[in-house]
Amino acid sequence: MKQKVLIGMITCLLMVGLLCACTPAKIRLNKTKVTIKVGQTYKLKVKGTKKKVKWTSSKKSVVSVSKKGKIKGKKKGKATITARVGKKKLKCKVKVVVKAITNTTSSGCNTNVGEVLKMEIDGKTVPVTWKDNESVKALRNMVKDKPLEIKMSRYGSFEQVGSIGKVLPSNDKETTTSPGDIVLYSSDQIVVFYGSNEWDYTRLGKINLSKNEIKTLLDKKNVTIKIHF
């Protein structure tokens, strides 16, 4: 009797297993709509499969996507990210927004609301999203009455670096940079990247241009940057 019960239980378990195996999992994206800020990243994932996924962006200048589905806002706009799994295509609509940081005092109170810190590279104004940290606040205070002009020099075929002439507060962390990143190095130097590097930096901001546009502006022996209101 016990043997018959045991055989019956095993049979039921096998049938359940076969039913589960025959029912295909629904392949889907974890998100079909995403809103991110310029410079912000988000990880898209394909669920319901272990097959290889190929990621593409309809507008790389607006939103880039890595081989592992990590998207990054490059500039204001809209783009569609496509995840191809075999013959199946999954789409996510991405909107990139820009949130400008207004002029603030060290106490954090707004002054001159709407006044945005600007950057020029060899006389060309470039769109920048600045970080909201103590380093940027000190930089804003520094250029409040007079623009900061820095003669930059190319280094390592991936960056332009120049001295600020003054020590700013910093909070250095191990950082992997990408084209367009603006960082503070050694508390008294600004570095603007058109390539990538890994070192201890304090992030200041991000130039919202394509990789090629940034390289064209910075891949020179010397450039001059100006930071002002």
Describe this structure in words.
The chain has 229 residues and is an alpha+beta fold. The protein contains 3 helices and 19 strands. It has helices at 2-22, 134-142, 211-218; strands at 28-29, 33-37, 41-43, 46-47, 54-57, 63-65, 70-73, 77-85, 88-97, 118-121, 124-126, 128-130, 148-155, 159-163, 173-176, 181-185, 189-193, 198-207, 222-228. The strands form 4 sheets. Strands 10, 11, 12, 13, 14, 15, 16, 17, 18 and 19 form a 10-stranded antiparallel sheet that branches. A hairpin with a 2-residue loop joins strand 10 and strand 11 (124-126). The chain is elongated, with a radius of gyration of 25 Å. The termini are far apart. Residues 100-114 have low confidence and may be disordered.
Strands, helices and their partners?
Layout: H1 2-22, E1 28-29, E2 33-37, E3 41-43, E4 46-47, E5 54-57, E6 63-65, E7 70-73, E8 77-85, E9 88-97, E10 118-121, E11 124-126, E12 128-130, H2 134-142, E13 148-155, E14 159-163, E15 173-176, E16 181-185, E17 189-193, E18 198-207, H3 211-218, E19 222-228
Parallel strand pairs: 2-9
Antiparallel strand pairs: 1-4, 3-7, 5-8, 6-7, 8-9, 10-11, 10-19, 12-18, 13-14, 13-19, 14-17, 15-18, 16-17, 16-18
